[in-house]
Amino acid sequence: MRPDHPINQSLQQIDENSWLFGDQILLTRQASPSPGCPSWGDGNGLYYLVSEPPSPLPPCQPLPAESHIKKLYDAGGVSAVWRIGDAICKARKHPDPNMTWEHVTLDYLHTKCPLGKLSFAIPNVIHHVGSGDRYFLIQSRVPGSTKEYYVSRVADICKELAAWTGNGIHGVDGRNLSDLYLTPLHGVEDMSPRNLLANCAHLKMDCSLFVFYHCDLGPGNIIVEPEQRSLAVVDWEMAGFVPRKWIRTKVRVSSGMDLEGEDEDSRQEWRRRLQRRLGQDGFPELADEWMVWFMNSGEDEK
Predict the structure, then answer these.
(1) pLDDT grade for 302, boundaries at 50, 70 and 90
(2) Where do the Aminoglycoside phosphotransferase domain residues begin and end (predicted)?
(3) Residue in 115, 131, 98, 127 with CA at minimum distance from that of residue 40
(4) Are residues 239 and 206 in contact, defined by beta-carbon separation less than 8 angstroms?
(5) Does 3.90.1200 match the CATH number of domain 151-301?
(6) Which of 40, 48, 74, 134 is deepest in the core (most CB within 10 A)?
């Protein structure tokens, strides 16, 4: 990818019907899909197709303000998300080359639980490319919105996923679990299974059993379709196997799961309700102990 394109400008327009995504993927819009090419609808009868870009790369420019492609999330030089028709395009810079990639987790979920076996929907992987420390994923868009939040259903999903067990703290393929909350704030960002196990053991979590967890079940990752009374879960890049005590603890400590709101009390309402429900369902937590460890450990490691 050209160095003058930061992550949040990974999607560049060539012309009104073609785009470059991370300089690794050519997206074109046309009247019909092509055999052998990943594709999806634009919602208006046309199709987007994925192919390899030509060499040399064609001239391109940032998306115009009036573009039908909408940026949904922008974390500057770390990650960005766009909606393109019936698909979601995600660009992310990964500091850890040994982490479990999101498409691997989604493939695992679809393989383990074929269509209809989960109580909630998940996206389908359309295409993915890794290039150096950058990762580009195109997945299907699940219908609905994030404006309604079902606490009891999300707690049930935590229980549903926790029925799956692993043999360590890692992603579904045994690689690193991308959850920085399991490393101290001032320590080395080592998310290897061995280091995360040592950290959790230091916190006196029960490390005799490891259960599957999304690790980022905030309101923005829960898509509700009110008419069908259905629910979908997106953004599986942090998912993996963790000690059971981490499920409720993560809800208590992660501000990334907050609602939007004008004051702290209203922003944290979602987390308060969810962690209470998880407590009623028998999930333990150690948020106070975690906070002391997270803020004060690791100073001498750097």
Answers:
(1) very low
(2) 210-241
(3) 127
(4) no
(5) yes
(6) 48
Between CA 136 and CA 24 the distance in angstroms is 8
From the number of C-beta atoms within 10 Å of its C-beta (0-12, 13-18, 19+), residue 143 rates as middle
In the block, which residue shows the tokens 């009891």? 152
Which of 129, 139, 130 lies closest to 236 in space, CA to CA? 139
Cα 234–238–241 angle (5° rounding)? 115
Query: In angstroms, rounded to a whole number, what is the distance separating the alpha carbons of residues 27 and 21?
Result: 7
Hey, how many other C-beta atoms are within 10 angstroms of the C-beta on 53?
A: 19
Q: What distance in Å separates the CA atoms of residue 151 and residue 156, rounded to the nearest whole number?
A: 9
Report yes or no: 260 and 253 within 8 Å, Cβ to Cβ: no
pLDDT digit string, tens, across residues 86-116: 999 999 998 788 999 999 999 999 999 876 7
